Amino acid sequence: MMNSSVFARSTIRSRVLTRPMRDGAYHWENVDGSHLPFSTKSKAGLAIKMGLFLGTGFSLPFIAAWWQFKKAGKPFFRPGPPPSD
Fold first, then answer.
1. In 23-64, which ranges are E strands?
2. What is the mean pLDDT of residues 18-33?
3. Of residues 67, 60, 84, 30, the one with CA closest to residue 76
4. Reduced to 3 states, what is the DSSP secondary structure of residue 72?
5. How far apart are CA 43 and CA 47, in angstroms?
6. How far apart are CA 34 and CA 28, in angstroms?
7. CA dihedral defined by 65, 66, 70, 73, rounded to 10 degrees?
8. The pLDDT of residue 57
9. pLDDT score at 85
10. φ/ψ of residue 77, rounded to 5
């Protein structure tokens, strides 16, 4: 009984996989930047947006560490030489 359901699913799967894909849904015009979800016309605007996006991702671990130290009541950065124990 189990074999019949496996064969039925494999038949359905083979029919789905052999069906040709529609080309109309995957057509883009051949224009620079048309496939990107943002505009590349303004270099300054693109640099600011990329700097904010990448800077946010880079700074998040440091902000999280600062927040955890602040909650614990410990200084995140202590200037000067390390304390001798």
1. none
2. 65
3. 67
4. helix
5. 6
6. 8
7. 70
8. 95
9. 64
10. -140, 125
